[in-house]
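Form 7-S
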Amino acid sequence: MTEFTKRLQLIAENPEALQQIGRGVEREALRFTSDGQLSDKPHPKGVGSALTNKWITTDFAESLLEFITPVSNDVPTLINQLEDIHHFTLTQMGDEKLWPLSMPCFVGEENDIQLADYGSSNVGKMKTVYRQGLKNRYGSVMQIISGVHFNFSFPDSFWQQLFNDQSTSEREAAQTDAYFGLIRNYYRFGWLIPYFFGASPALCGSFVKDSDSTLPFEKVGGSLYLPYSTSLRMSDLGYTNNAQSSLNIGYNNLDEYLTGLNKAINTPSEEFSLLNKASSSSKFEGEHVQLNSNVLQIENELYSPIRPKRVARNGEKPSEALGRAGIEYIEVRSLDVNPYSAIGITEDQVRFLDLFLIWGTLTDSDLMDDAELECWRDNWNKIILEGRKPGLELQIGCRGERLTQKAWAERVFSELKQVAVVMDAAVGGEAYQLTCQTLAKSIEDPELTISGQLLKETIAGGGIGSKGCELAAKYRQQHLDHQYKVYSETLMKEESKRSNQAQSEIEKADVLSFDEFLTDYFSYLS
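Output:
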Protein backbone atom coordinates (compact mmCIF):
# COMPACT_ATOMS: atom_id res chain seq x y z
CA MET A 1 0.00 0.00 0.00
CA THR A 2 1.44 3.37 -1.02
CA GLU A 3 1.69 6.35 1.34
CA PHE A 4 -0.91 8.09 -0.80
CA THR A 5 -3.39 5.24 -0.30
CA LYS A 6 -2.75 5.17 3.45
CA ARG A 7 -3.36 8.91 3.75
CA LEU A 8 -6.49 8.74 1.62
CA GLN A 9 -7.91 5.94 3.77
CA LEU A 10 -7.15 7.96 6.88
CA ILE A 11 -9.01 10.98 5.53
CA ALA A 12 -11.92 8.77 4.42
CA GLU A 13 -12.53 7.78 8.04
CA ASN A 14 -13.86 11.30 8.75
CA PRO A 15 -16.29 12.43 6.00
CA GLU A 16 -16.43 15.96 7.47
CA ALA A 17 -12.80 16.41 6.43
CA LEU A 18 -14.02 16.41 2.82
CA GLN A 19 -17.54 17.77 3.26
CA GLN A 20 -16.25 21.08 4.62
CA ILE A 21 -13.72 21.90 1.88
CA GLY A 22 -13.80 25.65 1.18
CA ARG A 23 -14.10 26.92 -2.40
CA GLY A 24 -14.39 30.35 -3.96
CA VAL A 25 -14.29 31.63 -7.54
CA GLU A 26 -13.12 34.92 -9.06
CA ARG A 27 -14.21 35.26 -12.69
CA GLU A 28 -13.04 38.11 -14.96
CA ALA A 29 -14.95 39.32 -18.02
CA LEU A 30 -14.73 42.29 -20.37
CA ARG A 31 -17.76 44.46 -21.08
CA PHE A 32 -18.23 45.11 -24.79
CA THR A 33 -20.75 46.91 -26.97
CA SER A 34 -23.22 45.75 -29.59
CA ASP A 35 -20.79 46.74 -32.35
CA GLY A 36 -18.07 44.50 -30.90
CA GLN A 37 -15.94 47.21 -29.31
CA LEU A 38 -14.50 47.35 -25.82
CA SER A 39 -16.82 49.39 -23.61
CA ASP A 40 -15.68 52.94 -22.88
CA LYS A 41 -18.37 53.45 -20.25
CA PRO A 42 -17.48 53.63 -16.54
CA HIS A 43 -18.16 50.78 -14.13
CA PRO A 44 -21.95 50.24 -14.06
CA LYS A 45 -23.34 52.62 -11.46
CA GLY A 46 -26.06 50.23 -10.35
CA VAL A 47 -23.64 47.60 -9.03
CA GLY A 48 -22.07 50.00 -6.54
CA SER A 49 -18.43 50.72 -5.72
CA ALA A 50 -15.69 48.67 -7.35
CA LEU A 51 -13.54 49.49 -4.33
CA THR A 52 -15.81 48.02 -1.68
CA ASN A 53 -18.49 45.77 -3.22
CA LYS A 54 -17.78 42.26 -1.93
CA TRP A 55 -19.17 40.49 -5.01
CA ILE A 56 -18.60 42.76 -8.02
CA THR A 57 -15.44 44.75 -8.73
CA THR A 58 -13.02 45.47 -11.56
CA ASP A 59 -9.59 44.10 -12.32
CA PHE A 60 -7.10 46.06 -14.48
CA ALA A 61 -9.48 48.11 -16.59
CA GLU A 62 -12.73 49.93 -16.01
CA SER A 63 -14.32 47.57 -18.54
CA LEU A 64 -12.85 44.41 -16.97
CA LEU A 65 -15.38 43.14 -14.43
CA GLU A 66 -14.50 40.67 -11.71
CA PHE A 67 -17.15 38.53 -10.01
CA ILE A 68 -16.26 37.14 -6.58
CA THR A 69 -18.09 34.44 -4.65
CA PRO A 70 -17.80 33.96 -0.90
CA VAL A 71 -16.35 30.71 0.43
CA SER A 72 -18.75 27.81 -0.09
CA ASN A 73 -18.63 24.18 1.11
CA ASP A 74 -20.98 22.95 -1.59
CA VAL A 75 -20.28 22.86 -5.35
CA PRO A 76 -23.84 23.58 -6.60
CA THR A 77 -24.15 26.49 -4.17
CA LEU A 78 -20.89 27.95 -5.48
CA ILE A 79 -22.18 27.78 -9.06
CA ASN A 80 -25.56 29.25 -8.07
CA GLN A 81 -23.88 32.17 -6.29
CA LEU A 82 -21.85 32.97 -9.38
CA GLU A 83 -24.95 32.78 -11.58
CA ASP A 84 -26.84 35.16 -9.27
CA ILE A 85 -23.98 37.68 -9.30
CA HIS A 86 -23.83 37.58 -13.09
CA HIS A 87 -27.60 38.01 -13.37
CA PHE A 88 -27.67 41.14 -11.21
CA THR A 89 -24.71 42.68 -13.03
CA LEU A 90 -26.25 42.13 -16.47
CA THR A 91 -29.42 43.90 -15.34
CA GLN A 92 -27.27 46.97 -14.65
CA MET A 93 -25.31 46.95 -17.94
CA GLY A 94 -27.84 48.21 -20.47
CA ASP A 95 -27.27 46.56 -23.84
CA GLU A 96 -23.63 45.67 -23.18
CA LYS A 97 -22.48 42.05 -23.13
CA LEU A 98 -19.71 40.05 -21.45
CA TRP A 99 -16.92 38.71 -23.64
CA PRO A 100 -17.00 34.91 -23.07
CA LEU A 101 -13.34 34.17 -23.87
CA SER A 102 -10.03 34.73 -22.10
CA MET A 103 -8.29 36.44 -25.01
CA PRO A 104 -9.82 39.77 -26.09
CA CYS A 105 -10.79 40.02 -29.73
CA PHE A 106 -11.24 43.76 -30.04
CA VAL A 107 -7.86 45.28 -29.34
CA GLY A 108 -7.56 48.88 -30.46
CA GLU A 109 -5.02 51.35 -29.14
CA GLU A 110 -3.44 50.97 -25.71
CA ASN A 111 -4.91 54.26 -24.56
CA ASP A 112 -8.43 53.11 -25.47
CA ILE A 113 -8.23 50.86 -22.41
CA GLN A 114 -9.27 52.93 -19.40
CA LEU A 115 -7.61 52.04 -16.10
CA ALA A 116 -9.95 50.95 -13.31
CA ASP A 117 -11.09 53.89 -11.17
CA TYR A 118 -11.58 53.34 -7.43
CA GLY A 119 -12.38 56.87 -6.34
CA SER A 120 -10.47 59.66 -4.61
CA SER A 121 -9.31 57.89 -1.44
CA ASN A 122 -5.63 57.12 -0.98
CA VAL A 123 -6.38 53.40 -1.09
CA GLY A 124 -8.38 53.85 -4.29
CA LYS A 125 -5.69 56.01 -5.92
CA MET A 126 -3.04 53.43 -5.00
CA LYS A 127 -4.97 50.70 -6.80
CA THR A 128 -5.18 52.87 -9.93
CA VAL A 129 -1.51 53.89 -9.84
CA TYR A 130 -0.56 50.21 -9.45
CA ARG A 131 -2.45 49.57 -12.68
CA GLN A 132 -0.72 52.55 -14.29
CA GLY A 133 2.54 50.83 -13.41
CA LEU A 134 1.36 47.58 -14.99
CA LYS A 135 0.37 49.48 -18.12
CA ASN A 136 3.75 51.19 -18.38
CA ARG A 137 5.68 48.02 -17.63
CA TYR A 138 3.86 45.43 -19.72
CA GLY A 139 1.24 47.25 -21.80
CA SER A 140 -2.51 47.47 -21.30
CA VAL A 141 -3.48 44.82 -23.83
CA MET A 142 -1.86 41.98 -21.88
CA GLN A 143 -3.66 43.16 -18.77
CA ILE A 144 -7.18 42.79 -20.20
CA ILE A 145 -6.80 39.06 -20.69
CA SER A 146 -9.47 37.36 -18.58
CA GLY A 147 -9.15 34.31 -16.37
CA VAL A 148 -10.83 32.37 -13.60
CA HIS A 149 -9.17 32.01 -10.19
CA PHE A 150 -10.16 29.16 -7.88
CA ASN A 151 -9.58 29.47 -4.15
CA PHE A 152 -9.37 26.22 -2.19
CA SER A 153 -8.90 25.33 1.47
CA PHE A 154 -9.11 22.27 3.66
CA PRO A 155 -11.08 22.43 6.94
CA ASP A 156 -9.43 21.98 10.34
CA SER A 157 -10.91 18.47 10.50
CA PHE A 158 -8.85 17.48 7.46
CA TRP A 159 -5.60 18.52 9.11
CA GLN A 160 -6.61 17.00 12.46
CA GLN A 161 -7.31 13.70 10.73
CA LEU A 162 -4.03 13.82 8.83
CA PHE A 163 -1.75 15.01 11.63
CA ASN A 164 -3.53 13.59 14.70
CA ASP A 165 -2.80 15.10 18.13
CA GLN A 166 -0.43 17.94 17.31
CA SER A 167 -0.44 21.25 19.10
CA THR A 168 -1.89 24.27 17.30
CA SER A 169 1.55 25.64 16.36
CA GLU A 170 2.75 22.24 15.19
CA ARG A 171 -0.37 21.77 13.08
CA GLU A 172 -0.03 25.25 11.52
CA ALA A 173 3.53 24.41 10.50
CA ALA A 174 2.55 20.96 9.19
CA GLN A 175 -0.41 22.46 7.32
CA THR A 176 1.83 25.05 5.65
CA ASP A 177 4.36 22.38 4.69
CA ALA A 178 1.55 20.24 3.25
CA TYR A 179 0.26 23.15 1.18
CA PHE A 180 3.77 23.73 -0.17
CA GLY A 181 3.89 20.03 -1.05
CA LEU A 182 0.66 20.59 -2.98
CA ILE A 183 2.16 23.61 -4.75
CA ARG A 184 5.20 21.58 -5.83
CA ASN A 185 2.95 18.81 -7.13
CA TYR A 186 0.89 21.45 -8.91
CA TYR A 187 4.01 22.49 -10.82
CA ARG A 188 4.76 18.83 -11.57
CA PHE A 189 1.32 17.76 -12.72
CA GLY A 190 -0.84 20.88 -13.00
CA TRP A 191 -0.34 20.97 -16.77
CA LEU A 192 -3.41 18.72 -16.73
CA ILE A 193 -5.48 21.86 -16.12
CA PRO A 194 -4.60 23.65 -19.39
CA TYR A 195 -4.73 20.27 -21.15
CA PHE A 196 -8.36 19.67 -20.15
CA PHE A 197 -9.59 23.23 -19.68
CA GLY A 198 -7.36 25.46 -21.78
CA ALA A 199 -9.71 27.57 -23.89
CA SER A 200 -7.51 29.95 -25.84
CA PRO A 201 -6.04 28.04 -28.80
CA ALA A 202 -6.71 31.07 -31.03
CA LEU A 203 -6.60 34.84 -30.69
CA CYS A 204 -7.38 37.96 -32.63
CA GLY A 205 -4.59 38.96 -35.00
CA SER A 206 -4.62 42.48 -33.55
CA PHE A 207 -3.43 41.08 -30.22
CA VAL A 208 0.02 40.32 -31.62
CA LYS A 209 0.25 43.20 -34.09
CA ASP A 210 3.17 44.76 -32.23
CA SER A 211 4.66 41.49 -31.02
CA ASP A 212 7.90 39.98 -32.22
CA SER A 213 6.49 36.49 -31.64
CA THR A 214 8.10 33.74 -33.69
CA LEU A 215 5.34 31.21 -33.01
CA PRO A 216 4.26 29.39 -36.22
CA PHE A 217 0.72 30.73 -36.27
CA GLU A 218 -1.83 29.66 -38.84
CA LYS A 219 -4.57 32.06 -39.88
CA VAL A 220 -8.33 31.91 -40.26
CA GLY A 221 -10.09 35.17 -41.06
CA GLY A 222 -8.56 37.76 -38.74
CA SER A 223 -7.62 35.15 -36.12
CA LEU A 224 -4.35 33.38 -35.44
CA TYR A 225 -4.05 29.90 -33.96
CA LEU A 226 -1.69 27.02 -33.29
CA PRO A 227 -3.11 23.64 -34.41
CA TYR A 228 -2.46 21.83 -31.11
CA SER A 229 -2.38 24.68 -28.61
CA THR A 230 -4.54 24.71 -25.48
CA SER A 231 -4.03 28.03 -23.67
CA LEU A 232 -2.26 30.90 -25.41
CA ARG A 233 -3.35 32.95 -22.40
CA MET A 234 -0.77 31.02 -20.37
CA SER A 235 1.99 31.44 -22.95
CA ASP A 236 4.54 34.25 -23.18
CA LEU A 237 1.99 36.07 -25.34
CA GLY A 238 -0.47 36.10 -22.49
CA TYR A 239 -0.55 36.71 -18.78
CA THR A 240 3.06 35.95 -17.97
CA ASN A 241 6.04 38.13 -17.31
CA ASN A 242 9.41 37.15 -18.74
CA ALA A 243 11.04 39.76 -16.52
CA GLN A 244 10.13 37.60 -13.54
CA SER A 245 11.60 34.38 -14.90
CA SER A 246 14.88 34.99 -13.07
CA LEU A 247 13.32 35.55 -9.64
CA ASN A 248 13.73 31.88 -8.65
CA ILE A 249 11.17 32.03 -5.86
CA GLY A 250 11.23 28.64 -4.15
CA TYR A 251 8.37 26.52 -2.86
CA ASN A 252 10.08 24.17 -0.43
CA ASN A 253 9.04 26.00 2.73
CA LEU A 254 7.60 29.27 3.96
CA ASP A 255 10.95 30.93 4.72
CA GLU A 256 12.27 30.16 1.23
CA TYR A 257 9.13 31.50 -0.43
CA LEU A 258 8.94 34.69 1.62
CA THR A 259 12.66 35.36 1.22
CA GLY A 260 12.37 35.16 -2.58
CA LEU A 261 9.19 37.22 -2.67
CA ASN A 262 10.55 39.94 -0.39
CA LYS A 263 13.74 40.12 -2.42
CA ALA A 264 11.70 40.83 -5.56
CA ILE A 265 9.68 43.49 -3.76
CA ASN A 266 12.83 45.16 -2.44
CA THR A 267 15.08 44.86 -5.53
CA PRO A 268 15.28 47.95 -7.78
CA SER A 269 14.81 47.32 -11.49
CA GLU A 270 17.05 49.21 -13.87
CA GLU A 271 14.47 48.77 -16.63
CA PHE A 272 11.54 50.04 -14.59
CA SER A 273 13.51 52.94 -13.13
CA LEU A 274 13.62 54.38 -16.66
CA LEU A 275 9.86 54.91 -16.40
CA ASN A 276 10.44 57.37 -13.58
CA LYS A 277 12.90 59.31 -15.73
CA ALA A 278 10.27 59.44 -18.47
CA SER A 279 7.84 61.00 -16.00
CA SER A 280 9.75 64.27 -16.26
CA SER A 281 8.55 64.56 -19.86
CA SER A 282 5.44 66.60 -20.61
CA LYS A 283 3.44 63.43 -21.14
CA PHE A 284 3.89 62.22 -17.57
CA GLU A 285 4.81 65.37 -15.69
CA GLY A 286 3.15 65.45 -12.28
CA GLU A 287 1.75 61.92 -12.66
CA HIS A 288 2.63 58.71 -10.85
CA VAL A 289 3.79 56.29 -13.53
CA GLN A 290 4.09 53.38 -11.07
CA LEU A 291 4.09 52.76 -7.32
CA ASN A 292 7.86 52.23 -7.28
CA SER A 293 10.59 51.03 -9.62
CA ASN A 294 11.30 47.68 -7.97
CA VAL A 295 11.01 44.32 -9.74
CA LEU A 296 7.56 43.97 -8.18
CA GLN A 297 5.63 47.08 -7.19
CA ILE A 298 3.61 45.00 -4.70
CA GLU A 299 3.17 41.27 -4.12
CA ASN A 300 0.15 40.96 -6.42
CA GLU A 301 2.40 41.64 -9.40
CA LEU A 302 3.98 38.19 -9.06
CA TYR A 303 2.54 36.16 -11.95
CA SER A 304 2.33 32.48 -11.07
CA PRO A 305 -0.11 29.66 -11.83
CA ILE A 306 -0.72 29.09 -8.11
CA ARG A 307 -0.32 31.24 -4.99
CA PRO A 308 -0.20 30.46 -1.26
CA LYS A 309 -2.61 32.74 0.60
CA ARG A 310 -3.92 33.79 4.01
CA VAL A 311 -6.67 36.27 4.78
CA ALA A 312 -4.86 39.42 5.90
CA ARG A 313 -5.84 41.48 8.91
CA ASN A 314 -6.63 45.16 8.50
CA GLY A 315 -3.49 46.95 7.29
CA GLU A 316 -1.55 43.71 6.91
CA LYS A 317 0.27 42.87 3.68
CA PRO A 318 -0.19 39.39 2.15
CA SER A 319 3.36 38.26 2.96
CA GLU A 320 2.98 39.51 6.53
CA ALA A 321 -0.17 37.42 6.91
CA LEU A 322 1.66 34.33 5.62
CA GLY A 323 4.60 35.01 7.93
CA ARG A 324 2.27 35.37 10.91
CA ALA A 325 0.40 32.07 10.65
CA GLY A 326 1.31 30.23 7.44
CA ILE A 327 -0.84 29.16 4.50
CA GLU A 328 -4.62 29.19 4.97
CA TYR A 329 -5.66 28.46 1.38
CA ILE A 330 -4.29 28.33 -2.15
CA GLU A 331 -5.32 30.21 -5.27
CA VAL A 332 -5.31 28.31 -8.58
CA ARG A 333 -4.71 30.82 -11.39
CA SER A 334 -4.31 28.68 -14.51
CA LEU A 335 -7.95 28.42 -15.60
CA ASP A 336 -9.02 30.04 -18.85
CA VAL A 337 -12.56 31.35 -19.05
CA ASN A 338 -14.66 28.40 -20.20
CA PRO A 339 -16.53 29.60 -23.32
CA TYR A 340 -19.07 26.80 -22.93
CA SER A 341 -20.30 28.13 -19.60
CA ALA A 342 -22.20 31.39 -19.14
CA ILE A 343 -20.26 31.97 -15.90
CA GLY A 344 -16.87 30.84 -17.22
CA ILE A 345 -16.59 27.62 -15.18
CA THR A 346 -18.58 24.39 -14.72
CA GLU A 347 -19.30 21.99 -11.87
CA ASP A 348 -17.16 19.36 -13.61
CA GLN A 349 -14.18 21.73 -13.55
CA VAL A 350 -14.66 22.46 -9.86
CA ARG A 351 -14.91 18.77 -9.06
CA PHE A 352 -11.77 17.97 -11.04
CA LEU A 353 -9.91 20.69 -9.13
CA ASP A 354 -11.17 19.22 -5.87
CA LEU A 355 -9.85 15.80 -6.85
CA PHE A 356 -6.55 17.08 -8.16
CA LEU A 357 -5.82 19.32 -5.17
CA ILE A 358 -6.70 16.59 -2.67
CA TRP A 359 -4.50 14.15 -4.57
CA GLY A 360 -1.67 16.69 -4.82
CA THR A 361 -1.78 17.16 -1.05
CA LEU A 362 -1.89 13.46 -0.12
CA THR A 363 0.65 12.15 -2.61
CA ASP A 364 4.41 12.36 -1.96
CA SER A 365 6.06 15.64 -2.91
CA ASP A 366 9.85 15.80 -2.85
CA LEU A 367 11.62 19.11 -2.42
CA MET A 368 12.30 20.94 -5.68
CA ASP A 369 15.36 22.94 -6.71
CA ASP A 370 15.40 25.67 -9.37
CA ALA A 371 16.59 23.31 -12.10
CA GLU A 372 13.77 20.86 -11.49
CA LEU A 373 11.21 23.66 -11.33
CA GLU A 374 12.40 24.82 -14.73
CA CYS A 375 11.93 21.30 -16.11
CA TRP A 376 8.33 21.25 -14.96
CA ARG A 377 7.73 24.72 -16.40
CA ASP A 378 8.97 23.38 -19.73
CA ASN A 379 6.26 20.69 -19.58
CA TRP A 380 3.63 23.36 -18.96
CA ASN A 381 4.88 25.30 -21.98
CA LYS A 382 4.67 22.22 -24.19
CA ILE A 383 1.08 21.57 -23.13
CA ILE A 384 0.17 25.24 -23.60
CA LEU A 385 1.55 25.41 -27.15
CA GLU A 386 0.98 21.87 -28.46
CA GLY A 387 -0.80 19.90 -25.74
CA ARG A 388 -3.17 18.08 -28.13
CA LYS A 389 -0.39 16.87 -30.40
CA PRO A 390 -0.49 13.06 -30.70
CA GLY A 391 2.45 11.41 -28.99
CA LEU A 392 3.68 14.62 -27.33
CA GLU A 393 6.32 13.68 -24.77
CA LEU A 394 6.89 15.36 -21.41
CA GLN A 395 9.96 15.00 -19.25
CA ILE A 396 9.87 13.60 -15.74
CA GLY A 397 11.86 16.16 -13.80
CA CYS A 398 15.47 16.41 -14.87
CA ARG A 399 16.18 12.67 -14.89
CA GLY A 400 15.90 12.27 -18.64
CA GLU A 401 12.83 10.02 -18.48
CA ARG A 402 9.94 10.88 -20.77
CA LEU A 403 6.27 9.99 -20.99
CA THR A 404 3.57 10.97 -23.44
CA GLN A 405 0.94 13.32 -22.06
CA LYS A 406 -1.59 10.50 -22.53
CA ALA A 407 0.40 7.94 -20.52
CA TRP A 408 1.15 10.41 -17.77
CA ALA A 409 -2.46 11.59 -17.52
CA GLU A 410 -3.61 7.96 -17.26
CA ARG A 411 -1.08 7.35 -14.48
CA VAL A 412 -2.40 10.30 -12.46
CA PHE A 413 -6.03 9.40 -13.16
CA SER A 414 -5.58 5.93 -11.70
CA GLU A 415 -5.21 7.63 -8.31
CA LEU A 416 -7.67 10.48 -8.96
CA LYS A 417 -10.34 7.81 -9.42
CA GLN A 418 -9.59 6.55 -5.92
CA VAL A 419 -10.09 10.08 -4.57
CA ALA A 420 -13.36 10.32 -6.52
CA VAL A 421 -14.74 7.21 -4.81
CA VAL A 422 -13.88 8.64 -1.39
CA MET A 423 -15.35 12.08 -2.24
CA ASP A 424 -18.61 10.56 -3.50
CA ALA A 425 -18.87 8.48 -0.34
CA ALA A 426 -18.39 11.64 1.76
CA VAL A 427 -20.82 13.96 -0.06
CA GLY A 428 -23.20 11.43 -1.61
CA GLY A 429 -23.94 10.53 -5.22
CA GLU A 430 -21.50 9.68 -8.01
CA ALA A 431 -20.70 13.15 -9.40
CA TYR A 432 -16.93 12.94 -8.82
CA GLN A 433 -16.65 9.53 -10.46
CA LEU A 434 -18.70 10.78 -13.40
CA THR A 435 -16.33 13.75 -13.75
CA CYS A 436 -13.42 11.32 -14.01
CA GLN A 437 -15.26 9.29 -16.63
CA THR A 438 -16.00 12.40 -18.69
CA LEU A 439 -12.45 13.74 -18.60
CA ALA A 440 -10.93 10.31 -19.27
CA LYS A 441 -12.51 10.50 -22.73
CA SER A 442 -10.43 13.64 -23.40
CA ILE A 443 -7.27 11.72 -22.51
CA GLU A 444 -8.11 9.22 -25.24
CA ASP A 445 -9.19 11.89 -27.72
CA PRO A 446 -7.57 15.34 -27.22
CA GLU A 447 -10.06 16.92 -29.63
CA LEU A 448 -12.74 16.46 -26.96
CA THR A 449 -10.97 18.99 -24.75
CA ILE A 450 -12.32 22.54 -24.57
CA SER A 451 -9.48 23.83 -26.77
CA GLY A 452 -10.08 21.08 -29.33
CA GLN A 453 -13.79 21.84 -29.58
CA LEU A 454 -13.29 25.61 -29.64
CA LEU A 455 -10.60 25.55 -32.33
CA LYS A 456 -12.74 23.34 -34.55
CA GLU A 457 -15.65 25.77 -34.25
CA THR A 458 -13.35 28.78 -34.71
CA ILE A 459 -11.99 27.44 -37.99
CA ALA A 460 -15.47 26.45 -39.20
CA GLY A 461 -16.85 29.89 -38.31
CA GLY A 462 -14.07 31.87 -39.95
CA GLY A 463 -12.47 33.29 -36.80
CA ILE A 464 -12.68 33.64 -33.05
CA GLY A 465 -14.55 36.96 -33.10
CA SER A 466 -17.79 35.64 -34.56
CA LYS A 467 -17.78 32.73 -32.10
CA GLY A 468 -17.28 35.07 -29.16
CA CYS A 469 -20.08 37.40 -30.26
CA GLU A 470 -22.44 34.47 -30.81
CA LEU A 471 -21.82 33.07 -27.32
CA ALA A 472 -21.96 36.51 -25.69
CA ALA A 473 -25.43 37.19 -27.10
CA LYS A 474 -26.64 33.77 -25.99
CA TYR A 475 -25.28 34.19 -22.47
CA ARG A 476 -26.60 37.74 -22.08
CA GLN A 477 -30.13 36.48 -22.55
CA GLN A 478 -29.43 33.49 -20.33
CA HIS A 479 -28.23 35.77 -17.52
CA LEU A 480 -31.21 38.11 -17.88
CA ASP A 481 -33.65 35.17 -17.78
CA HIS A 482 -32.00 33.69 -14.69
CA GLN A 483 -33.97 33.44 -11.44
CA TYR A 484 -32.14 34.02 -8.15
CA LYS A 485 -31.19 30.81 -6.33
CA VAL A 486 -29.05 32.01 -3.39
CA TYR A 487 -29.29 35.79 -3.29
CA SER A 488 -32.08 38.22 -4.20
CA GLU A 489 -32.41 41.53 -6.01
CA THR A 490 -33.00 43.25 -2.69
CA LEU A 491 -29.81 41.80 -1.22
CA MET A 492 -27.74 42.74 -4.27
CA LYS A 493 -29.06 46.31 -4.26
CA GLU A 494 -28.39 46.60 -0.52
CA GLU A 495 -24.78 45.58 -1.12
CA SER A 496 -24.52 48.13 -3.92
CA LYS A 497 -25.78 50.87 -1.60
CA ARG A 498 -23.56 49.72 1.28
CA SER A 499 -20.48 49.68 -0.96
CA ASN A 500 -21.08 53.27 -2.10
CA GLN A 501 -21.42 54.42 1.48
CA ALA A 502 -18.29 52.51 2.48
CA GLN A 503 -16.26 54.16 -0.28
CA SER A 504 -17.51 57.58 0.78
CA GLU A 505 -16.52 56.92 4.39
CA ILE A 506 -13.04 55.78 3.36
CA GLU A 507 -12.57 58.95 1.32
CA LYS A 508 -13.72 61.19 4.17
CA ALA A 509 -11.38 59.44 6.65
CA ASP A 510 -8.16 60.25 4.75
CA VAL A 511 -5.85 62.65 6.59
CA LEU A 512 -2.61 62.17 4.64
CA SER A 513 -1.82 63.43 1.18
CA PHE A 514 -1.42 60.68 -1.42
CA ASP A 515 2.36 61.08 -1.48
CA GLU A 516 2.49 60.88 2.32
CA PHE A 517 0.27 57.79 2.18
CA LEU A 518 2.62 56.05 -0.28
CA THR A 519 5.68 56.98 1.78
CA ASP A 520 4.05 55.47 4.86
CA TYR A 521 2.87 52.34 3.00
CA PHE A 522 6.31 51.60 1.55
CA SER A 523 8.28 52.55 4.66
CA TYR A 524 9.24 48.87 5.03
CA LEU A 525 11.33 49.18 1.84
CA SER A 526 13.66 51.81 3.30
